[in-house]
Design goal:
three-stranded parallel β-sheet, 30% strand, alpha/beta
């Protein structure tokens, strides 16, 4: 069986009121390795600094020796892709066969990956986006149009 252990996100500290850090681990009983994932994020000021608002890394340890064997500093991309892949799987299993439009609330990194992964499970290429920030929405729509979406 796959086991996953985690703790509630650490509350905001020096990085600001919306910042948090999640630390999770997972393993398969009897396998050779286990993983510890550290996912800090929510630092809105990072956008002004030209940095991503989220980041992350995965640490791979031996289940036999407990020695660190690898570090994957993926900047959170695995989290972003995993969430979108799970949503695409849910859409494939539960959405109607014919989808006319996709609705997106927000236009951040998750919205981008959601639309990218939905391409694999639906022929629909029309989307509506709702965002609190019109500048972000305009940039998102332009990027997604470049990727083949009719979006507004």
């Amino acid at each position: 069986p796959v086991q996953s252990m985690g703790q509630p996100p650490m509350p905001a500290f020096l990085a600001g009121p919306e910042a948090q850090t999640c630390i999770k681990s997972g393993y398969v009983k009897g396998a050779d390795h286990f993983v510890v994932k550290i996912a800090p994020g929510g630092v809105s000021e990072n956008e002004k600094r030209g940095l991503p608002t989220n980041t992350g890394l995965n640490l791979l340890f031996s289940q036999h020796t407990l020695r660190l064997e690898a570090i994957l500093f993926d900047e959170g991309i695995l989290t972003e892709m995993r969430t979108a892949a799970a949503a695409a799987l849910a859409a494939r299993l539960f959405a109607p066969r014919t989808v006319m439009k996709v609705g997106m609330f927000g236009c951040g990194v998750q919205a981008r990956w959601q639309l990218r992964f939905l391409r694999a499970v639906t022929d629909c290429r029309q989307a509506l986006v709702n965002s609190r920030n019109t500048e972000h929405a305009a940039r998102f729509c332009e990027e997604m149009r470049d990727e083949g979406w009719e979006i507004r």
